[in-house]
Amino acid sequence: MNAQPAGSAYFFASSSEEPVTHTLSVIVDNEPGVLARVVGLFSGRGYNIESLTVTETEHQKHLSRITIVTTGKPMILDQIKNQLGRMVPVHRVTDLTDTGRPLERELALVKVVGRGDNRVEALRLAEIYEAKVIDATTEHFVFQVTGTSYKVGEFLDIMQHLGMVEVARTGVAAMQRGQEVL
Amino acid sequence: MVIQALIDQGVEHIFGYPGGAVLPIYDELFQQEKVEHILVRHEQGAGHAAEGYARSTGKPGVALVTSGPAATNMVTPLTDALMDSIPLVCITGQVPTSLIGSDAFQECDTVGITRPCTKYNWLVRDVNDLARILHEAFVVATTGRPGPVVVDIPKDVQFATGTYHPPKKRTNGDIASSYMGYRPQLKGDPAAIREAVDLIAGAKKPVFYTGGGVVNSGRAASQLLRDLVELTGYPITSTLMGLGAYPASGKNWLGMLGMHGTFEANNAMHDCDVMICVGARFDDRITGRLDAFAPNSKKIHIDIDPSSINKNVHVDIPIVGDIGHVLEDMVRLWRSESKQVDKKALASWWKEIEGWRARHCLDYRANNDVIMPQYAIQRLYQATKGKDTYISTEVGQHQMWAAQFYGFEEPNRWMTSGGLGTMGYGLPAAVGIQVAHRDSLVIDIAGDASVLMTIQEFSTAVQHDLPIKIFILNNKYMGMVRQWQQLLHGNRLSHSYVESQPDFVKLAEAYGGVGLRAKTPAELDDKIDEMIATRQPVIFDCQVVNVENCFPMIPSGEAHNNMLLGESVSDEEVANAIGEEGKMLV
Ligand SMILES: Cc1ncc(C[n+]2csc(CCOP(=O)(O)OP(=O)(O)O)c2C)c(N)n1
Ligand SMILES: [Mg+2]
């Protein structure tokens, strides 16, 4: 935006800031409806969800871990974290992107159908991407590929041309580097 | 078990309406005398009554309703309470667990429907969780930023027997929630408090901007606010929800701010160099155009809810904590360090403010033949001000005139639907207030359209001997809608005229109450006195001039220093006041 009046801390700041993508880790009580609550927050307030995964991670303590990849302007991202943080069953919200480059992995199952050259090419490329064949007939493969979302995306782009007919992706699981724990 | 939990939580009154899925609880109610049940006429009424009860006492309001349509009728008051941070515990009946999900008779997904309009909610599937959840519900509703909660109890769980636990003792500073992650922060960060106090002391054009959070924090918070204003000598304004925390007769009072706030309050906000926001949330009705909001100011924001901070407006010093705790620390620091303000700067700032005040922005054209709505509120105020009075309102012009012309001296005396703007709030809220304060004078300042949304609760008032007064500023229009149509839509008054109004006097009588009517300024005072003297519920049909507009006003999309003032404004200015972009706003 144009000249900011002196002293004003906020002058439609959001419109000049670029959206960024962050990965959040949210530790919650594993209560019924927690996921609906989190998803409802995002849809109700118009926030983005690029990826969301959830499972119980500590059975005794009844805790689940939700990993959310979201995109927004920095002010909105702060809002998202605050809104999540004030929810009753939420223990902690950690912005993994803020604390460093997080480790992020995703898994995809990719069904490719075909014969002849395409089939050979698919298998060759799968090797390069370290994708495993977990099911096959003479007419098809199911590959299991893991890696960053970027790598998984690349693999899918390629398979698109080689007879890909079906995809299932898990969404991102993420953790910060180093020996510290959340 | 439900009733025992209510008793142990100190509940004396509940508002409710029975039905199939709550009959076991109603049966328990019948067999005890500690909890008094107020039978409403519509579940929405129970919700608003509980809100009025809560807001006027500082205690949580409790509502009890059945499943399905009763639960959906509660959605409006729950949302209202969420927006205005009112502690509400709503207990709903549900079909038996075995039938959940089968589209059973009067089944609805209550926790699903109320999830976005509660602070938290529970479906109790096991009677052994019931006591814990009920107690937890009170903890969540009343601590941190208060709000509504729902406990949905299937009928089989109501019939089942299980072990009951009394509530955990709340030790000092601990809120005794079993949710490990739920620990609202009460004390503010000392470093931020120190920084804020220094900034306040060094200000040249300061203003306190306070809100409903001060009232929610409790009486002590209002007193501390008054102390801090006294210590500094700084001007203070407040949102609609915060009225009464600082007395309207106080010498530093600028009046309300925002869309229909005073000229002096809004200009002080616009020109200030330090803004001290206490328990308010920079709502769009307050800020007006964001890019021109107090452009030269440093902002301090004290709020218990971290998500309120930096939501709409970036602030320089955020302090997360309970208003009472934070103000206490601020006042203590101010005193112990004998802080001094810049007296010279302050004197010239007040002089500037006096200049704005001299515009007399609330002036209106007096009239001897018809009652001006502003005049009616002024007379009502004069007649009631020495008394132990509580005011609620509906939504519309009358609400704004009440806020502008009625002087609130104490917190918890002013009950209005601020965030949601719910027409139909005021009458049931008055019922709830009167239940809590049997001997006080409780007046709903109403609009002719709004009051019909929940008029049935007048019957509740009659049944329970609640002598509420419904003071209708009857302009025969949805006045606020008509005003916006004049401002935005070429004065095409599409469906904002209320044809075939009921005869409000006869209506009151039909319900078994008293009806009064005033048509001229000359008879107004006597009729108001008569209303006050009546020990029965009253509907007062105060017939006012039909097409008066509510001024001053910041047109949508405009800045604080660009207000329309009532006296001077021409019809043409009114028609052109809002730009194309502003028309998109609400
Ligand atoms: C439940 C609900 N429906 C619609 C509105 C929109 N609305 C706001 S003010 C208003 C008119 C209120 O008319 P009245 O009660 O007569 O008050 P007046 O403005 O005339 O004083 C309307 C329809 C609302 N606030 N709430
Ligand atoms: Mg009206």
TrEMBL record, chain A:
Pfam families listed in its UniProt record: ACT_AHAS_ss, ALS_ss_C
Reaction(s) catalysed (UniProt annotation): 2 pyruvate + H(+) = (2S)-2-acetolactate + CO2
EC id: 2.2.1.6
Keyword terms, alphabetized: Amino-acid biosynthesis, Branched-chain amino acid biosynthesis, Transferase
Record-level Gene Ontology MF annotations: acetolactate synthase activity; acetolactate synthase regulator activity
Role of this protein: Catalyzes the conversion of 2 pyruvate molecules into acetolactate in the first common step of the biosynthetic pathway of the branched-amino acids such as leucine, isoleucine, and valine.
Family statement: Belongs to the acetolactate synthase small subunit family.
Name this protein carries in UniProt: Acetolactate synthase small subunit
Species this chain originates from: Rhodobium orientis
